[in-house]
Design a protein that fits this description.
The complex is a heterodimer. Chain A is an alpha/beta fold. Helices cover about 30% and strands about 25% of the residues of chain A. Chain A contains twelve helices and twelve strands. In chain A, helix 4 packs across helix 5, helix 4 (about 115-125) packs parallel to helix 7 (about 160-175) and helix 5 (about 130-145) crosses helix 7. Chain B is of the alpha/beta class. Classes of the chains: A alpha/beta, B alpha/beta. Chains A and B meet through helix 5, helix 7, helix 8, helix 9 and helix 10 of A and helix 7, helix 8, helix 9, helix 10 and helix 14 of B.
Chain lengths: ~350, ~400
């Protein structure tokens, strides 16, 4: 039994979610550890297939066959959600943790009005009658900045624009006042001006409701805008974790560095973009040792052995053989002694 | 370039292997290769082409309306979606003209009409001074050798039942390269050019990742050795680390082959990176058209300003108050009168809602050399004004929540 630290809301410990497909086992989430404190916004960033969405689904126990959470703990205020019964879990969803999805059109039911769908969520979680639930739905729509909420509540999802639908999703997720909001690519399907509206809205609601947000996105701009702390994922593993400022200004992991260097930035016209060579490895056939080694400009022989998770600085960890100073490891000290027979020369960085 | 009658048939195609430097498809006549060399020389310079550059594609007052039909028999016209509503611009040889704007602004429709993949409602497009809308099928086929397209979704735009060789070789086959061996040789050369393994020629699209598929799409566009390629959101569906690979590839190919791009994308950072000049569209109109540096440093249309302000920057130190436009883009079926942006315009609000924004439609006018904007009040945009507009917006949601 563990006692949660004050303010500790959610803690993932060595979470593993695997998919048993016909072609083999996909280790979509493979030993993910991080925590979210009350009121904190944690950004989870990575490319498609890195396991960021599956991590979120695992927290809410929404994984379906052929997938299964095969190991680890998800502690909500110190209690392991993996040990909850289905009934208890249903109570957690919506009440303590809510989730919004990327595509609001496919996550809303097209045959019910928006008001009905929010009212249903309210009714399920609170002892209210139909009228009160409806009133609450209209109030929620007003809170997320939808003009004429009473009229809009009677409309169907297809009668609304993408931005409006995402507001409806947020209204539904917030209707039960959760402590943690999991937002999976909440603005990816939206235009930039609408994205700006939704991000402003999320910030304002975060401020007022004092809720924590787990923000999953591939967009480093959105992360920089919103997140207090950042987790960088690759191939189902956390590659680096630190506060947002550190991730953007002093990244340690070569993957994080590559990701940051490869995005075109407004107002910085460069002749060529830096690229990360190669492609994301096939999840059915992951390389041994470091998952990033085939694309890594710092790759060295030691990378054939799974890299350690090093503490680079307080609150900053990185899964890499490079020392906290970014140097190649010294045999026997930073690297396991069994690698000592390999010549020291081979261990020097083969920077390209 | 080559009319149908001038096209080389398999018999008189030179048998000698192509000059590896030339980068011209195997089956084009030598004279043509020469012109490519010259063009490459012209655009090889890394600077953006100057305003006097040769016009390759000219778009004049282009309009595309999609009728909305209804009624008992579904034939009465109820109105029209005015997807593109009077757009004019030139694309100069060797440049990349970026086209940005939000979804529904008409940028993709514009690209399709320029390629004559959709019939225009009115207006003209000419390539190399040759208007294309009146051309017969066979003449148009010849023009298509000059203009190609790379689509957004590399999953939907490749036929899953065709091998890479068939996909990339289809254009040359249709355009007269009947010899299978020659065609395969050409496809292999193209695959090498776009950075794909030449031995993958017999594979099917599903065996490739998104980035590799987009390379196949690019190889297909290059197969007829075009001058002009419309790239419609070519990297939007790709992961960030793959995006930069494809953008660099497009850059390299442009330099090597002297290509001219119309690059359509909603991501303004991507548009800035790749473009020499940029047009911004709103509700079927170009609201601003300028050299890339000018547009990003000193935008002269309030919509461009808001669009740029909305882009979240990957730098937590630059978190700032954004200029957030309220509301959604109005329906293109019934665009607002006067300036189409007036319903959401922060500048108009700042200036005390001048009447002419509602009554007069602003023309695209020259603000400074290399910069045009369609706003009556362009000169009133100042950095201080932008900042104060950003700061004086009511906080979102909380204001609304307080009302109940």
């Amino acid at each position: 039994m563990t006692t949660p630290q004050a303010g500790q809301l959610l803690e993932l410990r060595d979470l593993r979610t695997h998919f048993y497909t016909q072609d083999g086992t996909v280790r979509a989430v493979d030993g993910v550890t991080f925590e979210i404190r009350d009121g904190q916004t944690l950004g989870v960033v990575g490319e498609s297939g890195c396991g960021k969405s599956i991590t979120a689904m695992s927290v809410l126990r929404l994984i379906e066959r052929p997938g299964r959470v095969v190991g680890g703990q998800v502690l909500l205020r110190g209690k392991d959600l993996m040990e909850y019964s289905d009934t208890e879990m249903r109570d957690v969803r919506g009440n303590q943790i809510s989730m919004i999805f990327q595509e609001p059109m496919t996550s809303l039911n097209p045959v019910y009005t928006c008001g009905d769908q929010i009212a249903e969520a309210v009714e399920l979680h609170e002892a209210v009658n139909r009228r009160q639930a409806w009133a609450r739905a209209v109030e929620m729509l007003a809170q997320v900045g939808i003009p004429e909420p009473a009229r809009r509540a009677k409309q169907f999802p297809h009668q609304m624009s993408g931005g409006m639908r995402q507001r409806v999703m947020i209204a539904m997720a917030l209707s039960t006042n959760p402590e943690l909001l999991i937002a999976d690519e909440p603005t990816t399907a939206l235009d930039v001006t609408i994205q700006a509206q939704i991000l402003e809205l999320m910030k304002a609601l975060r401020e007022r409701n004092k809720m924590a947000i787990m923000l999953i996105t591939h967009d480093l701009g959105v992360i920089a805008e919103m997140a207090d702390e950042v987790v960088v994922m690759y191939g189902g593993k956390v590659m680096e974790r630190a506060d947002a400022m550190t991730i953007f200004e002093r990244p340690h992991n070569p993957y994080t560095k590559g990701l940051l260097a490869s995005i075109p930035r407004l107002g910085e016209k460069r002749e060529r973009l830096e690229v990360i060579q190669g492609v994301v490895p096939n999840p059915l056939n992951l390389p041994t040792g470091c998952l990033f080694k085939r694309r890594c400009p710092y790759a060295m022989p030691v990378c054939d052995t799974a890299p350690p998770v090093r503490q680079v600085a307080p609150g900053h960890v990185s899964r890499c053989w490079l020392t906290p100073a970014g140097e190649p490891p010294r045999i026997g000290e930073d690297a396991p002694p069994e690698l000592a027979e390999e010549s020291a020369q081979e261990l020097t960085v083969m920077a390209r | 370039m080559t009319g149908p009658e001038a096209r080389v048939t398999s018999q008189d195609r030179p048998d000698a292997p192509p000059d590896p430097e030339s980068g011209s498809p195997l089956w084009k006549p030598a004279a043509d290769t020469g012109s490519h060399t010259g063009r490459r020389g012209a655009s090889g310079a890394e600077t953006a082409p100057d305003a006097q550059g040769e016009v390759l594609v000219k778009v004049t007052d282009l309009v595309k309306h999609f009728p909305i039909r209804g009624g008992l028999l579904g034939i009465s016209r109820l109105g029209a979606v005015r997807a593109v509503d009077g757009v004019s611009f030139d694309v100069r040889r060797g440049e990349t003209l970026g086209l940005g704007g939000e979804s529904g602004c008409g940028k993709t429709t514009l690209g399709k009409v320029i390629l004559r993949l959709l019939p225009p409602t009115s207006g003209d497009v000419s390539i190399k001074d040759r208007p294309i809308f009146g051309l017969s099928g066979s003449k148009m086929k010849a023009v298509r050798e000059d203009m190609q397209v790379v689509f957004q979704d590399p999953y939907a735009s490749l036929n899953p039942r065709m091998t890479v060789g068939e996909i990339v070789g289809e254009g040359p086959l249709v355009h007269g390269l009947k010899n299978r061996v020659k065609r395969e040789e050409l496809v292999r050369e193209l695959l090498g050019k776009v950075g794909l393994n030449q031995s993958h020629i017999h594979r099917y699209p599903h065996e490739f990742s998104g980035g590799q598929r987009q390379r196949i799409g690019i190889a297909r566009a290059l197969a007829l050795n075009p001058d002009f390629i419309v790239c419609d959101e070519p990297v939007s569906a790709l992961d960030v680390s793959i995006q930069s690979q494809v953008l660099n590839l497009l850059d390299d190919l442009q330099r090597e082959l002297g290509l001219t791009y119309l690059f359509i994308a909603h991501n303004l950072a991507v548009v800035e990176h790749i473009s020499d000049r940029v047009g911004v569209m709103y509700l079927g109109k170009i609201v601003e058209l300028a050299d890339v540096d000018t547009l990003y440093r000193d935008a002269r249309h309030p919509y461009t300003v808001a669009l740029l302000s909305a882009v979240p920057e990957p730098d937590p130190r630059r978190r700032r108050k954004r200029l957030v436009l309220r509301g959604d883009v109005p329906s293109p079926v019934n665009p607002p009168s006067g300036c189409r942006f007036h319903t959401r315009c922060w500048l108009r609000e700042q200036l005390g809602n001048p009447e002419n924004c509602v009554t007069d439609e602003p023309e695209l006018r020259t603000i400074s050399p290399g910069q045009q904007a369609a706003c009556h009040w362009s000169e009133k945009i100042t950095p201080e004004g932008v900042q104060s507009a950003a700061e004086h917006q009511p906080p979102v949601a909380l204001a609304e929540a307080a009302a109940d």
